[in-house]
Amino acid sequence: MPPAVRFGVNYTPSEGWFHHWLDFDLDSVRADLDAVAALGMDHIRVFPLWPYFQPNRTLIRPRAVEQLVALADAAAERGLDVNVDGLQGHLSSFDFLPAWTRTWHRRNLFTDPEVVEGQAAYLRTLAAALADRPNFIGMTVGNEVNQFAAGPHPDPDRVTSGEAEQWLVRMLAACTEGAPGRLHLHASYDAAWYQDDQPFTPGHSARLGDLTAVHSWVFNGTAQRHGRASVAAEHHAAYLVELSKAWAPTPDRPVWLQEVGAPAPLVPAEHAAAFAEATVAHALDCPGLWGVTWWCSSDVARGLADFPELEYGLGLFTSDRRPKDLARVLSGAARRPHPAPAVRTTALVVPDDPGHRSRCAPGGVVFDAFFRLVADGARPTTVLDTRTEDKDHLAARGITEVVTPDQVLPTPPGGTRSCTPPDARS
């Protein structure tokens, strides 16, 4: 039997948001975690703010590390495991980078040797502090660090794909040095899968680290193009899970839906629970899903200024810890048994060349073809165009039919769409 899919939340403190590290209140944290545990969740993802923990390249604040450990221990008391994101990095539209990497000390986050060694020391220190805690899952290198490497970031730290890979390998090694035998990974926002010039590639996400993380947000053009209740919006998380498998080195590599949420106004508050229910159900139909971690635990308090409007209402709880309908949906999903999904036997061909990733993005031919298949009742996965003739690879994944985007024809009104047979293509 495959292991049960794990359910958790990205922990956003109800008091002070992530600035709570400046005024750390363990009683407040405990109250938050009581609410999370009451939903039947089994893990949280935790976000130290990098400049607060490592304000100088050679100073990792012992007191801050102690507070992180105290939070992990409080989670353990409530039956919650903990994953820790190290390099924050970027959260909810704000960048949190230490002064020793900016302005007068401006150095590339990914290639400057001193910065890289400082980052490695930081990750190793956090991992080592938690290495003996049974509820410590492992480290995520950072939250969507790829957003610093290219546009649309206003001041990117430019790198090549080779340099990005070298950096990731070094950061993951530092996590392993600190806590051997744990699950260590990295996490990118969906530009890694969709943006042609993004140096962090699908191959990096699917091949480096112990499992693949995907972050699903339908404000990326999906909901704007198709609507909140569309096949594309409700299956977007499942699409990213299945898209990642095209680059995976082995058929059994687990995929973690590490972030997914219901962003207003594209998903209005009164529809958030229905959107969550559909999104989770479709993700659970993906073989090899490690877990679902909802963004996020608590709303951002209205007293905090300058957040994008959508950030204020993403929580399962209000900022005074009242559960929403959204929380009840996630709680129900976490408590129900879920049968193992059947193998997906139909594979849609995707380009191996990262310079053509936009074909997989909203509006791209792969994206549109995938959801035409889904709308017609199929359960597609994906395969690289360089592997379509690899019989061993296809057999190992249980794939019996390979189709290209141009074979996936629109569904005629009132009828069932069919695929053009391979020998009919020009």
TrEMBL record:
The lineage of its organism: Bacteria, Bacillati, Actinomycetota, Actinomycetes, Kitasatosporales. This is Glycosyl hydrolase. Gene3D superfamilies: Glycosidases (3.20.20.80). Residues 405-426 are annotated as: Disordered. It comes from the Bacteria. InterPro entries: GH.
